[in-house]
Automatic annotation (TrEMBL):
Cell membrane keyword on record: yes
InterPro entries assigned: LeuE-type (IPR001123)
Main location: membrane
GO molecular function: amino acid transmembrane transporter activity
Keyword Transmembrane set for record: yes
Keywords linked to the UniProt accession: Cell membrane, Membrane, Transmembrane, Transmembrane helix
Membrane topology of the entry: Multi-pass membrane protein
A Pfam family assignment: LysE
GO CC, alphabetical: plasma membrane
Transmembrane stretches, start-end: 6-29, 41-66, 72-93, 149-177
Intracellular or extracellular location(s): Cell membrane
Protein name (Swiss-Prot/TrEMBL): Threonine transporter RhtB
Length: 210
């Protein structure tokens, strides 16, 4: 297997994971619908940074811990579940607090691009299923003569490129919809739906860790 064939083969697998609706897509879409393009893109970049970390970890075999250690998998799953539930509850609470805001002027959410990037990064890193995916796929695309760490990062970069293309569609589509629905009630509705989705993801992750 050559480097080129390995990258193409991995891209075919990664594109399916990228376009399937999931937590990352929900987080990016919510950012685009309720904040700004800059904030949404920073969230996407944070997610891709997490992907690079997972790729490097898979390359050196660090993610094997998740497969061989049930305790490690449970701890990471529970941490991820708590983080998702906390995010979901925070969105629900903020949507209730916005109830008194006038419909003519939607509220301006707090936080800058670094907050969006950190949210994307933590969401990705605290999702053990991403690590398991990399553990299962990346070893199959290793190339003889290429250091595992380098190959892991190269494969992760392919995934990042695909992820940013998909994220761009989400951000542009969400921003266009936000421009048409400039109201406080719309922002509250998006926060409530996204908060519910995050809590559901967190609950499922916690149950799977049992």
């Amino acid at each position: 297997m050559t480097v080129a064939s390995a990258l193409v083969g991995f891209a075919a697998v990664a594109v399916l994971l990228t376009i399937v609706p999931g937590l990352d897509s929900a987080l990016i879409l919510r950012s685009a619908l309720t904040r700004s393009k800059t904030y949404a893109f920073s969230t996407a970049l944070g997610i891709q940074a997490g992907t690079l970390v997972w790729g490097a970890a898979a390359g050196v075999g660090a993610t094997a811990v998740l497969a061989t250690s049930e305790t490690a998998y449970r701890i990471l799953s529970l941490l991820g579940a708590c983080y998702l539930v906390w995010m979901g509850v925070s969105l629900l609470v903020s949507s209730v607090r916005r109830h008194t805001v006038t419909e003519q002027k939607p509220p301006v959410p707090k936080g800058g691009v670094w907050r969006g990037a950190s949210a994307g990064l933590l969401t990705n890193l605290l999702n053990p299923k991403v690590g398991v995916f990399y553990l299962a796929t990346i070893p199959q695309f290793m190339v003889s003569g290429i250091p595992p760490l380098v190959m892991g990062v190269l494969l992760a970069l392919v995934h990042c490129a695909l992820g940013m293309v998909w994220s761009t569609f989400l951000v542009l589509g969400g921003s266009a919809l936000r421009a048409r629905l400039r109201s406080a009630s719309f922002v509250r509705w998006v926060d409530r739906v996204t908060g519910g989705v995050l809590i559901a993801f967190g609950a499922r992750l916690a149950l799977n860790a049992r």
